């Protein structure tokens, strides 16, 4: 299911633990790490697709997570030609009358894990996406993200950060700065008057 511009509707998932670290999954048989994501099927809305993908890719159920927020708009990326599957002659003829696939358009969800790490099950389906996982700092190093997805990851994490920051401080931090969300960003004048 493609839109008129050739983008497939998709959801991305940023899953946080209690320390505001993000779930980072290693693709099966590759040394490639990413956030869970997947296509929206016909008849699904983005939230339904997110819960389905959450279960299919990491085995979590709705009771294991809490939705904190989502991106306001679709974020898009183009898939380079070398990553596109070559259609057979029959499929190519059929596709010539339809819009050509360009990439993904994604709604990103920010979730809080309320379950336990042991609730994660990478083999919840017969076709696992990941063969390992870990918790990583929120501001993941962008150079480890496949190059054509980097901008979308940066946009998604930057937009979703507003849901977990205390005030505007986190949005002003340079990429990769450590998250210290537990300290107040307000100045306490009483501290100035206390004797040392």
TrEMBL record:
A motif (Nudix box) lies at residues 38-59. SUPFAM superfamilies: Nudix. Its EC number is 3.6.1.-. Belongs to the Nudix hydrolase family. RppH subfamily. Accelerates the degradation of transcripts by removing pyrophosphate from the 5'-end of triphosphorylated RNA, leading to a more labile monophosphorylated state that can stimulate subsequent ribonuclease cleavage. Keywords: Hydrolase. It is an enzyme of class 3 (hydrolase). Residues 6-158 form the Nudix hydrolase domain. This is RNA pyrophosphohydrolase. Gene3D superfamilies: Nucleoside Triphosphate Pyrophosphohydrolase. The lineage of its organism: Bacteria, Pseudomonadati, Pseudomonadota, Betaproteobacteria, Burkholderiales.
